[in-house]
Amino acid sequence: MFRRTFWFTTGVAAGVWATTKVNRKLKQLTPENLAATAANKALEAGHRLKDRAVGFALDVRDNMAQREAELGDALGINADPELPAPRRYAAIENRNNAKTYVVDGTTYSYNRNEDH
């Protein structure tokens, strides 16, 4: 009698375990879950690709700066040239509809009616 009870309980447990496994697998194979899984994997692949591309771009930028410095040293070019100050344009209205522009201390006048 004890053997029958043991094997009956073992069979019930195996049946419950197998039913649970099959139901989980069936839920994984629904169209909604398949679509969600595919979307998640695509996002993960995109993130990995982006990380690799960013790393590659940073490597290229570093190597480019290093090579530019090497070429500048080899050619005797100053790496940090002095840039000119930005120009400032000031517009001043005249009475006769002519505009006066001041560029680097020099005054220029422009009347749009003189173009015709």
Element order: H for helix, E for strand: HHEEE
Let me know the number of strands.
Answer: 3
How many independent structural domains? 2
Q: Roughly how much helix do the residues carry, as a percent range?
A: 55-70%
Structural class: alpha+beta
Percentage of residues in DSSP E strands: 5-15%
Largest sheet: 3 strands, antiparallel
Mean pLDDT: 81
Gyration radius over CA = 39 Å
Major sheet strand order: 1-2-3
Q: Using the alpha-carbon principal axes, give the shape.
A: elongated
* Number of discrete helical segments: 2
In short:
This protein is an alpha+beta fold. It contains 2 helices and 3 strands. Helix content is 62%, strand content 15%.
Structural write-up:
It comes from Streptomyces dysideae. This is Secreted protein. Strand 2 and strand 3 (106-111) form a beta hairpin. The chain has helices at 2-28, 31-75; strands at residues 89-93, 98-103, 106-111. With 116 residues, the chain is α+β, with helices and mostly antiparallel strands. The mean pLDDT is 81. The chain is 62% helix and 15% strand. It has a three-stranded antiparallel beta sheet with strand order 1-2-3, with no helix packed on it. The protein is built from two helices and three strands. It has two domains: 1-77; 86-116, no CATH class.
Using brief descriptors, characterize the structure shown.
116 residues; alpha+beta; 2 domains; three-stranded antiparallel beta sheet; 2 helices; 3 strands
